[in-house]
Amino acid sequence: MRGSRGIAGIMLGLASGLAFGAGGAIVKPLLEAGWSPGAAVFLRISVAALLLVVPGLIALRFDLRPLWRAKWTVLVYSIIAVAGVQLAFYASIARIPVSAALLIEYLAPVALVAFAWARTRRAPQLVVLSGSVVAIAGLVLVIGPAGGAIDPLGIVLAGVAMLGVAVYYVLGARDDLGVPPIALAAAGVVIGAIVLGLAGLTGLVPFEFVLTDMPFLGGAAPWWVLVLTVGAISTAFAYVAGIQAIRMLGTRLASFLGLSEVVFAGVVAWVLLGEAIGPLQLLGGMLILCGIVLVRLERRATEPSAGDPAPDAELVPAARPLAAEHS
User: Fold this and answer.
1) 39: number of CA atoms within 13 Å, CB side?
2) What is the pLDDT of residues 230-263, one digit of tens each?
3) Is residue 113 part of a domain?
4) Is residue 323 part of a domain?
């Protein structure tokens, strides 16, 4: 039974990675047609909110008091880790390839290492430092001259998305909120949609739509097909599958499976958008993934036994799921 549960959990984790990874490639035709990143993110998370609000309420047993007690964490999670990450990521993929933006975004664990080092003034373990150096070397190959001319603003926006993902990791590692994961995800997309909607109405975030057919799966489809697909599959389904995988496999294994999103994103972008990855960029991507694996191996050495105090949350990132989103 444990073996069957493990296999099912792995399949769910990979399905979540594929769904998240495909999100950027599905949305990019909208951005290239003239949609603003704010409009694309707003409709994506609005669709997810409509699909997740009922399961979230069921998980809370229709009692909103746990959300109110954790209101500030939920608010930061919604604005930064949901709306902010996706807005910055979409703005970046409008300027640079999806795979490059996602690889930069996935450097969040390295940013957390640097933050924890500065905050605690304790040097990380050698495996973590080695992983950080390897990941940064991979980043140089991805965005350097070998990768072609990449828009500097696109790189900066992907870096902003990376910082948002780092915030997600810190908040996701907390298990003291008293809010079920699916309820937190539902609250994140609902509040994120409301905040973005208000920002759009006030003109703070530009909302631009082009309601016409878009390239999709080798043909053309109405714009709303792409919106429903990315909202239902790359957001709602991806979050639910990812959360279930975490429950079945645990945080560590699920977080490693989350790296599959980068691979799937590159493949889907290649197939749907023709964004082929050059040899040195491919090498850089592999170095980034290897570096992040080394960074995350640090948890095995520092994870406490029963009764021991928990390590710093910054060094114990939870498995990605918004990313998310970020993608």
Assistant:
1) 18
2) 999 988 888 778 777 766 776 556 666 666 777 7
3) yes
4) no
